Structure formats: structure tokens, C-alpha cells
């Protein structure tokens, strides 16, 4: 009998795990399960729509999907369509690769006011993620936006808000989101970090892109830029030096007449969101950094704003029977082992950090543990899964169904757009049932 494997989550970490499993156990049969009818997880729903070259990695994932013994089982959600216990009873090996789908939230007064949008919803809106909040009516009225956090997601959000129609054409952004961004009377976008430039998580290409916007100028506010990156750890010093050079160039540029301003602000935190029916402003405090931690001073100030996106990271959504670790909400694990026969990779294992390629290394490490554990091929695998899903009448989408969706989305593109994604789940499901004529 061949080893039966379930990979739960069809994002980068899932595909790298499936690939590594096929190399280690060439006869294994792998079901890659995903809650959406479409594969590729954060490459489809997280990577910014103007970063098309990053999305080319899906060509590799498509090849994995084509390999003998590999199935895509879309529109099947762990915890909704099958339980964790059922999954374990059916597969010899379960690899959890579902990432982190819940946003970290700001715990400050006013954080529930309209105008404050969880990052998962905001990114989901412009990336056409089914069921995410429609932010168009909010964004189309936004004059001033605050993005909290000094990571790449904060830069993605700020950059997209600052883009013009011509800069959004050759992207796979949800068209209604592009329309709202273009029509918005937006003049100021504040990217606020609680610590300093050295501590920020920006990547050099993403930071540099803020200097290439057509109608927006980027400035560094209250520029407390260190002279060099000597305070940084040796392993990241070069990277920090490069970022500092970019920040210095932003701070030295004279103000020009471009209508939008992206303000990079360091050593500041939001402490209250002000408003009654809708947020109107954010009260901020200036920080100092003591032993690597942001510590508030007495100095406060107010930023007028109609939109606030906390881009401060992610955590795991809870699944019955699956223990999460306290701090970062990752699945509780020891180097990737969860319990006998169950493993975890990617963000769900190590927390929400790293780039796409980090998941390849991560998956190989965990698969080498599976080799050591040498599981027996004794369970029903795909047949068992199909039985559970058919008993519940689950409307699953296979690889052919996904390719039908893919072809239809590509056909909806054109004029520079590589595709126009389906945003409504039922539309995706309907499309998946049409088969491309041979
Ligand atoms: P991130 O890099 O961890 O950044 C989160 C930011 O939020 C940090 O600046 C953090 O500050 C701040 N933060 C956390 N809690 C906060 C709070 N309560 N108040 C104020 N600030 C708070 O996370 P991310 O931007 O969500 O990105 C997730 C991962 O995806 C990262 O590995 C990122 O590089 C990757 N990604 C990559 C790309 C790309 O390569 N183009 C694009 C998008 C995302 P502290 O440092 O002080 O904690």
C-alpha cells in the first residue's frame, strides 16, 4: 500500500511539503485540501496584485498538481466539512499548512469603530478573497489613511492606496477596489511604526517602490534616522544599511507637487481611535526604544484619518481538537511534529514571518522528520476522504475545476490585466463545473 498523505492548505508551504513528500516517498498519494475552490493560498490572496512576477511561482505549483498521485481537493474546510479527528483517521500522514488566517488586532479604545479595517479584510478586498469585507464605499471617501506596522504588508497597503489608474491597470487587483482607490480623495497615507528604522521589517525592494510612485511622494517624518546600521545584528546589517540609504533619500527630497504624500513615521503608536459613528482621527504617542521594546513617552499628537488598517501580523484561527501555542497562535509543535502522524509547516508552524522561499526550507526540514518517523501505510487515504465528503454532500472542486476557473478568469482579463478573479464563492463554484471543451 502507498502512504496516504493529506496536506491541509494549498498555499506555498503546502505545495513545498507535497513536493518534498513526493521526493522522499515517491509512491505516496497526496490530497492537497483547501477551503477555497482555488489553490495557491497567499500567492493568490496575499501577495500584492501589482507584484505579478512573484506570482510566477504558481507555475511550479501547477507542475506539482500535475504529478501522479496528487489531487487538489478544493472548497473543503477543516473544521467545517471534516473534523481533525476524521482527517487523522483517514490519512497515514497529515501535514497542516493552513497558514494564519486571523488578523492580530489593536487593543486600544475605538478599535471597533467603522473605518478600522482588519488587515485580512483589507488585503482580501483588493485581492478578491471571497467573503472579505467590501471596503469600496469606505475607501472611495477616504482623505487620509493610517497603516499601522512596519512590515511588508503595511508597505503593500500604503503603495496600493497611493497608486493611480495607470499603475493599477497591469495588475490582478479586484476591479471595484481599483476604481475606489482611483476615485478616493486620498491625500495622506501614514505608515506608523512603534519602533525605529533599524527594527522595521521592510524589504529593500518594497521600500524602494515607495520612491517610484507616479502621483505620490514619500517622506520620512520627524526624521530620527540613525547615521548607520551599526546597532543592527551582524546577519542583517547589510540589509538594514540598504534600507537606511533609501530612507535617507526620502528624507532629503524636496517636497514636490505630486498630490499624495506617504508619510513614514517611526517611534509612534496609536493609543486611541477617535470618532462616534465613524473614525475621524487617531491619537498617537511618541515612543522611545528601551532594550528593544517600544516604550511610550508623554508626548501625544493627533492624525486626522478616515481609514486605519492595522498591518501588525496574523494568528491562527482555532480548529477544534488542535492545540495552539500561547504566544503567536501557531499550532503547538516540536520542530514541526504535532502528534504521531501529524506535522505542521509554514506560518502555522513558525509564525507569520519569512518570504515564500522560506517555506521550501521549512517543508524540507519537516519532511526529513517524517522520514525519520517512517510512518506505516495502513489507512484508507483518498477513498476514505471521498466517503466522508460524499456523505456530507460537500461540493468539492478538483484540479480540473480549478483550471476551468483559471481559464475563465484569464479570459476576463485583457488590456494588460492578466486575469480578473471571481470574488463571489458561488460564481467560482458555478464556473468550476463547466469543463473546457477538449
Ligand atoms: P511583520 O513583518 O511581522 O510586521 C508586523 C509589524 O507590526 C512590525 O513592524 C511590528 O512591530 C508591528 N506590530 C505588531 N504588533 C503591533 C502593535 N500592537 N502595535 C503596533 N505595531 C505592531 O508582518 P507583516 O507585514 O504582516 O508580514 C508578514 C510576513 O509576510 C513577513 O515575513 C513579510 O516579510 C511577508 N511579506 C513579504 C512580502 C514581500 O516579500 N513582498 C509582502 C508581504 C508580506 P515590532 O517589530 O515592533 O513587533
Order the strands across the largest sheet as they lie in space: 3-2-1-4-16-15
CATH architecture of the largest domain: 3-Layer(bba) Sandwich
- Per CATH, the superfamily of the largest domain is FAD/NAD(P)-binding domain
Summarize the main sheet: 6 strands, mixed
The tally of strands reads 16
From the N-terminal CA to the C-terminal CA, the straight-line distance is: 34 Å
CATH class of the largest domain: Alpha Beta
Number of domains: 2
- Ligand identities: NADP nicotinamide-adenine-dinucleotide phosphate
- Give the overall shape: globular
Number of helices: 16
What proportion strand?
A: 15-25%
At CATH level 3, the topology of the largest domain is FAD/NAD(P)-binding domain
Question: Could you tell me the mean pLDDT?
Answer: 95
Compute the gyration radius: what is it? Answer: 23 Å
Alpha-beta classification:
alpha/beta
Measured as a percent range, the helix fraction is 25-40%
Give the low-confidence spans: none
Describe this structure in a few short sentences.
This protein is an alpha/beta fold.
Features:
6-stranded mixed β-sheet, 33% helix, 16 helices, 16 strands, alpha/beta, Rossmann fold, 5-stranded parallel β-sheet, 438 residues, FAD/NAD(P)-binding domain, binds NADP nicotinamide-adenine-dinucleotide phosphate
Please tell me about this protein's structure.
There is one protein chain. This protein has 438 residues and is of the alpha/beta class. The protein folds into 2 domains: 4-101 and 315-396, NAD(P)-binding Rossmann-like Domain (Rossmann fold); 105-312, 3-Layer(bba) Sandwich (FAD/NAD(P)-binding domain), CATH 3.50.50.60. The chain is 33% helix and 19% strand. The chain is built from 16 helices and 16 strands. The strands form 4 sheets. It has a 6-stranded mixed β-sheet with strand order 3-2-1-4-16-15, with helices on both faces. It has a 5-stranded parallel β-sheet with strand order 8-9-7-6-13. Helix 1 (12-24) crosses helix 13 and helix 15 (399-412) packs across helix 16 (425-433). The model has no long low-confidence stretch (mean pLDDT 95). The chain binds NADP nicotinamide-adenine-dinucleotide phosphate. Residues 104, 148-154, 156, 193-195, 199-201, 203, 206, 269, 311-313, 352-355 line the site of NADP nicotinamide-adenine-dinucleotide phosphate. NADP nicotinamide-adenine-dinucleotide phosphate binds next to helix 7.
Amino acid at each position: 500500500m502507498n502512504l496516504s498523505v493529506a496536506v491541509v492548505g494549498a498555499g506555498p508551504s503546502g505545495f513545498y511539503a507535497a513536493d518534498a513528500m513526493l521526493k522522499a516517498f515517491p509512491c505516496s498519494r497526496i490530497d492537497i485540501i483547501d477551503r477555497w475552490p482555488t489553490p495557491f493560498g497567499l500567492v493568490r490572496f496575499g501577495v500584492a496584485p501589482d507584484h505579478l512576477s512573484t506570482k510566477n511561482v504558481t507555475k511550479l505549483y501547477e507542475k506539482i498538481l500535475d504529478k501522479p498521485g496528487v489531487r487538489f481537493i478544493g472548497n473543503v474546510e477543516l473544521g467545517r466539512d471534516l473534523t481533525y479527528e476524521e482527517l487523522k483517521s483517514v490519512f497515514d500522514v497529515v501535514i497542516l499548512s493552513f497558514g494564519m488566517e486571523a488578523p492580530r488586532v489593536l487593543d486600544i479604545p475605538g478599535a471597533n469603530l467603522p473605518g478600522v479595517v482588519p488587515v485580512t479584510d483589507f488585503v482580501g478586498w483588493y485581492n478578491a478573497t471571497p467573503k472579505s469585507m467590501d471596503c469600496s464605499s469606505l475607501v472611495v471617501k477616504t482623505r487620509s489613511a493610517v497603516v499601522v506596522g512596519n512590515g511588508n504588508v503595511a508597505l503593500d497597503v500604503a503603495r496600493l492606496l497611493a497608486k493611480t489608474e495607470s499603475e493599477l491597470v497591469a495588475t490582478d487587483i479586484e476591479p471595484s477596489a481599483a476604481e475606489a482607490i482611483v476615485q478616493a480623495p486620498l491625500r495622506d497615507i501614514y505608515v506608523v511604526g512603534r519602533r525605529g528604522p533599524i527594527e522595521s521589517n521592510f524589504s529593500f525592494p518594497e521600500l524602494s517602490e515607495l520612491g517610484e510612485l507616479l502621483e505620490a511622494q514619500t517622506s520620512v517624518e520627524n526624521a530620527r534616522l540613525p547615521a548607520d546600521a551599526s546597532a543592527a545584528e551582524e546577519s542583517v546589517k547589510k540589509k538594514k544599511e540598504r534600507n537606511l540609504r533609501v530612507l535617507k533619500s526620502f528624507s532629503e527630497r524636496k517636497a514636490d507637487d505630486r498630490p499624495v504624500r506617504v508619510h513614514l513615521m517611526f517611534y509612534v503608536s496609536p493609543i486611541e481611535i477617535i470618532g462616534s459613528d465613524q473614525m475621524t482621527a487617531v491619537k498617537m504617542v511618541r515612543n522611545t526604544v528601551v532594550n528593544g521594546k517600544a516604550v511610550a513617552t508623554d508626548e501625544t499628537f493627533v492624525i486626522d484619518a478616515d481609514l486605519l488598517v492595522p498591518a501588525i501580523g496574523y494568528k491562527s484561527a482555532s480548529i477544534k481538537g488542535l492545540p495552539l501555542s500561547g504566544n503567536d497562535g501557531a499550532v503547538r509543535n516540536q520542530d514541526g511534529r504535532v502528534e504521531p502522524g501529524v506535522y505542521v509547516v509554514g506560518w502555522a508552524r513558525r509564525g507569520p514571518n519569512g518570504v515564500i522561499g522560506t517555506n521550501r526550507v521549512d517543508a524540507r526540514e519537516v519532511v526529513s522528520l517524517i522520514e525519520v518517523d517512517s510512518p506505516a501505510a495502513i489507512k484508507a487515504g483518498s477513498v476514505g476522504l471521498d466517503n466522508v465528503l460524499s456523505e456530507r454532500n460537500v461540493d468539492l472542486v478538483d484540479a480540473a475545476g480549478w483550471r476551468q476557473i483559471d481559464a475563465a478568469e484569464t479570459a476576463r482579463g485583457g488590456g494588460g490585466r492578466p486575469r480578473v478573479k471571481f470574488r463571489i464563492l458561488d460564481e467560482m463554484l458555478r464556473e468550476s463545473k463547466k469543463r473546457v471543451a477538449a
